[in-house]
Design brief:
The protein has 129 residues and is α+β, with helices and mostly antiparallel strands. Helix content is 32%, strand content 22%.
Length: 129
């Protein structure tokens, strides 16, 4: 089974959203089936075969997630991040500011779905692979 350390080693190679597809391939090869990133502190829950899960520690002090979603602004900031114009911390701050609570990456479907605090799906993207 995979460890948080292995995943964090793969993630250390990500400098911007442009590096995300290579990261996804690497952790899928480790056995990660999906993962859930919580914007408030960037702790991540990872899921593998046979109910296997592991969880990372918080990466920063809690951010406040806005109650209302600004979908248009979020999409604009996401596209900027994917072009490598912002770093991970800036992206998480942007998510909090626009009401995004978490995102779930499904490595079988190659999708990334962003959710608000009420659990509503705000945006679903296909991950290039």
């Amino acid at each position: 089974m995979f460890t948080v350390e292995q995943i964090e080693n793969a993630h250390s190679k990500v400098q911007s959203g442009a590096d995300f597809p290579n990261y996804i391939k690497e952790i899928k090869d480790l056995g990660v089936k999906s993962f859930e990133i919580w914007v408030k502190d960037s702790h991540t829950e990872y899921f593998g075969d046979n109910g296997y899960t592991t969880k990372s520690k918080a990466k920063y002090a809690d951010l406040t997630i806005e109650n209302s979603v600004d979908e248009e602004k979020f999409i604009k900031q996401l596209k900027s991040h994917q072009k490598g114009e912002t770093d991970y911390m800036e992206f998480c701050e942007d998510c909090a500011e626009t009401g995004i609570e978490k995102w779930i990456v499904n490595l079988n479907n190659f999708t990334c779905v962003y959710y608000d605090k009420a659990g509503n799906e705000i945006l679903m993207e296909e991950i290039p692979h």
